[in-house]
Amino acid sequence: MDRIGDVALFLRVLDSGSISAAARSLHLSVAVASQRLKRLERDLGVRLLHRTTRQLSVTPEGAALAEQGRVLVDEIETLTAGLRHAGASVTGTLRVTTAAMFGQQYISPLIPEFLALHPNVKLSFDLGDETLDLVKSGFDLAIRIGDLEDSNLVARKLATNRRVLCASPKYLRRHGVPKTPADLKQHQCLILAGRHGRRDVWHGVRVNGRIDSNQGELLRDAALGGLGIAMHSTWHVWEDLRAGRLQIVLPNYPIPDTGIYAVTPHRRLIPPRVRAFIEFLAARFGENPPWGEVK
To answer: Is 148 found in the same domain as 212?
Structure first.
């Protein structure tokens, strides 16, 4: 187990950013931690870290070890924890990444309840709209919305992601209400643009407009300001729809649903903390999600 322990120490150095911080978190002296890292490098025959007096950076070999080693260490920790506590103990740091707006609106309010249920768990969140590599970035779990691309990941559907076209009453009074998808060509459309390009084909029609953005909140604000028609998930705009600040456009032409998923790396052993968080979210988002249904 010495080799596994040394790999775990190396991963802790990467996560904390310094040997001294990693040593403190593991109740080791800096000298012992440094010796163990040198031993690991000597045993593997490669340099894992570039060390200077001011900076610590990982080598390509170190990055490769981190990618594969994190999975191994997590599985060993899960196995030993299960043997000690018969699979009942939920402990450790849970690293989660999710879209910023969804995380703020629907994950953040649930944190106090989850931590109260599992007092031995720590949470580390990355809220951003970039799709990160879970293994390379060291995340246990991602909450992803839409169509899934990576077949090397394991996904559990938490809720349906319903999408609608919507605009403000002010915009529709000024520019008229589209009756068919072909009418969208005559309207200002607020377009989401991301790493896969502009999502500008709606109902088989290529649309255009004066505003596009990679940030859904800006497009929502533009729609509320009467600047055009936007495509949004109902979880994002259901309160605006309920209040009448936005109206559904082309309600007789529904957009195919996608999903909201909990996504994990493909592992034989899923840590109890990950399993507990997925079950917790599934219970909160499943049949009665916190966003209301709209007609």
So the answer is: no
Token pair, residue 273, equals 């903390």
What's the whole-model pTM score?
0.69
| pLDDT at residue 85 in the model | 54
**How high is the mean pLDDT in each 10-residue block of the chain (295 residues)?**
78 85 86 88 86 78 83 71 58 90 94 94 88 78 83 83 96 96 96 84 95 93 97 95 96 94 78 91 88 76
CATH number for the domain spanning 21: value is: 1.10.10.10
Q: Which residue has 């890292």 as its token pair?
A: 37
Residue 123 CA to residue 14 CA, distance in Å, equals 17
> How far apart (Å, rounded) are the C-alpha atoms in residues 216 and 236?
9
In this structure, are residues 125 and 98 in contact, taking their beta carbons and an 8 Å threshold?
Answer: yes
Do 106 and 230 reside in the same domain of the chain?
Answer: no
Region for 34 from its dihedrals, namely left if φ exceeds 0, alpha if ψ lies in -120 to 50, beta otherwise: alpha
Domain that includes residue 36, residue range = 2-85
Is 29 inside any structural domain? Answer: yes
- The label of the residue with tokens 């990160």 reads 132
Q: Which residues are within 8 A (CB) of 73 and not within 5 positions of it... i.e. 6 or more apart? A: 4, 7, 8, 11
184 and 244 both lie in a single domain: yes
Total domains present in the chain: 3
The answer to the question of residue 196 being in a domain is yes
> What per-residue confidence (pLDDT) applies to 82?
58
